[in-house]
Design brief:
Strand order of the largest sheet: 1-2-3
CATH architecture of the largest domain: 3-Layer(aba) Sandwich
Number of strands: 5
Shape: globular
Radius of gyration: 21 Å
Bound molecules: adenosine-5'-diphosphate, tryptophan
Largest sheet: 3 strands, parallel
CATH topology of the largest domain: Rossmann fold
Structural class: mainly alpha
Strand content: 5-15%
Length: 330
């Protein structure tokens, strides 16, 4: 493509990335899995397993290779239909790394120095590598390669999408219109799913409720949700109760209002409230848990889905890369 060829479509394109960082929990489910499944059919949807990003934190090859297959399996089990959206491994599409380099040459240091997530990670003890620092540039490449208009992310990733946008604006102003400007799509209700201790649910806080795995362990996690010490008869405020706030995520507005009324009326003890949540959990995830079991036995199918996804992704990404090479004079 020549540097002056018209870029870009005006279609809805969605690109999301998920780092294969281990066991999937309710925060991951409501934060990105379900939103991505619900987006299928609403535009052109790309979903990438961000295995190159994971290299900034995962050092064990066996763990990384298992984790990236696990996340693909989780997504398929949760209803991600690979015929309606493109699911692929980031490292299968080499131009992500190429574009990342080109973008890094125009990205001001200051822009990355302001990234909160880098500082947070270093504070948590993750090695301050160059890759960790330029993480947002690779993420910008992920997004911009697909002319993505929307990027569904949790609140913690919003700044990264803004950085991608800033980089795109800068590139466009230096080299002419090349990239579509992406926007973050944040589901308000689920922006921060609470963990069993009432903080944001996160593997690193040890407060997760997993989606898959032993039913017993899940029940234990749910029964261990921290509450105040009101007795059974006491009226309870649903909006400040972690059990309710997690339960609500599964429910329609009417169902959630009805449950809130039961909390307010008194007579619903926390033990029973947790049992109700566990029942809802099993209803919701029963089918997905069964499907995951089948997929695990058929790892060849998962790998085939990922190979086919990479072929579809490459077509789009390589065309964008050609456009970029032309623009910069390569
Ligand atoms: P963790 O904090 O458990 O390590 P990850 O970093 O694996 O979670 O999160 C992966 C994705 O899931 C991110 O896009 C993040 O925004 C989303 N996510 C994680 N935890 C939550 C949460 N508690 N609420 C909403 N979304 C979440
Ligand atoms: N940084 C994201 C996270 O930690 C994962 C990610 C990588 C991503 N590339 C992306 C998300 C592109 C959205 C778009 O969750």
């Amino acid at each position: 493509m020549s540097p002056s060829s018209p870029p870009l479509s005006s279609k809805i394109r969605v690109l999301d990335g998920i780092q294969p960082s281990g066991i999937a929990h309710l925060g991951n489910y409501f934060g990105y899995i379900r939103p991505n499944v619900q987006l299928l059919g609403k535009g052109e949807i790309f979903l990438m397993v961000a295995d190159l990003h994971a290299l900034t934190t995962v050092r064990d090859p066996a763990i990384l290779s298992q984790a990236r297959r696990d996340v693909a399996t989780d997504l398929l089990a949760c209803g991600y239909d690979p015929d309606r959206g493109t699911l692929f491994y980031q490292s299968d599409v080499a131009v992500h790394s190429e574009l990342s380099w080109i973008l890094s040459t125009i990205t001001p240091m200051g822009l990355l120095e302001r990234a909160v997530s880098y500082k947070d990670k270093v504070e948590k003890g993750i090695a301050a590598s160059v890759g960790l620092f330029t993480y947002p540039v690779l993420m910008a490449a992920d997004i911009l390669l697909y002319d993505a208009t929307l990027v569904p992310v949790g609140r913690d990733q919003k700044q990264h999408v803004e950085i991608a946008r800033d980089i795109a604006v800068k590139f466009n102003s230096m080299y002419g219109e090349t990239f579509v400007l992406p926007e973050a799509l944040i589901g308000e209700d689920t922006a921060a799913v609470l963990g069993t201790d009432g903080q944001k649910m996160s593997k690193s806080y040890g407060n997760i409720i997993p989606i898959f795995g032993e039913e017993k362990a899940i029940k234990k996690a749910i029964m261990g949700i921290v509450t105040d010490s009101k007795d059974v008869a006491a009226p309870k405020d649903p909006e400040t109760c972690t059990v309710f706030r997690i339960h609500k995520l599964f429910l329609s507005k009417e169902e959630s209002n009805a449950l809130a009324d039961r909390y307010r009326a008194g007579g619903l003890g926390y033990g029973d409230a947790k049992k109700l949540l566990f029942e809802t959990y099993l209803d919701h995830f029963g089918g997905m848990r069964k499907k995951r079991g089948e997929l695990v036995k058929n790892a060849g199918f998962v790998e085939e889905v990922m190979r086919a996804g990479a072929v579809k992704a490459k077509k789009i990404a390589e065309a964008t890369m050609e456009r970029v090479r032309g623009r910069v004079g390569l």
